[in-house]
Amino acid sequence: MKKGLATLVFGGIILTSMPARADIVFGADVYKAFIDTSQELDFYGEDNYDTIAAVLGFDFSGVGIEGFYQTGDDVINNNNRTSKLSSYGVDFVLRLPTSEYIDFVGSAGYVKYNLETDLKEFETDGLRLGIGLQFNFNKYMAIRAMYHYSALTEEINDIKSINEISAGIRIKF
Q1: Which of 70, 86, 93, 166 has the least C-beta neighbours within 10 A?
Q2: What are phi and psi of 62, to 5 degrees?
């Protein structure tokens, strides 16, 4: 019991003596969103979209929260229909350093998608999970590449999930 208590106290002293760093995070990402569309949705939309996102967040020594708004240009599919994908949400982010310059990044959050077409508008939301790597140029600037999987709560014509690949920049203040 005494050994466990001593270890706990010693561990607490080490953790409290480590400098905590709190930063505001600004970022921008480019996305490639892949949607496994049903034949009915193929009439309205496309199976992938190129989008960009603005990111604003807070990071506290590798644990943070990031809000994002993602939108893209109109896409014309094979049926000459115009569609556009946009989304917004929030991710809880955990950065685990693997070296001085590279961090392993994991995220979990909420996302709301909006698929606008010239005939219909589809909305859905869900859980978003992400995994990726971040290369730190210094303590203020980094680039990040991630894979995101969004499990949707409401199906849009048999679409249960959306997969996204992103790359972007993070600037901390």
Answers
A1: 86
A2: 95, -5
Structure tokens at 94: 């955990």
Give residue for tokens 């894979």. 147
Q: Is the dihedral of CA 51, 74, 36, 92 positive or negative?
A: positive
Own/partner contacts of 89-95, CB < 8 Å, gap of 24 or more, are 89/128, 90/65, 90/66, 91/65, 91/66, 91/128, 91/130, 92/63, 92/64, 92/65, 93/57, 93/59, 93/63, 93/64, 93/65, 93/66, 94/62, 94/63, 95/59, 95/62, 95/63, 95/64, 95/134
d(CA 29, CA 51) in angstroms, rounded, equals 8
Residue given tokens 């080490």 in the structure block: 14
Q: Could you report the per-residue pLDDT of 109-159, keeping only the tens digit for each?
A: 999 999 898 888 889 999 999 999 999 999 999 999 999 999 998 877 667
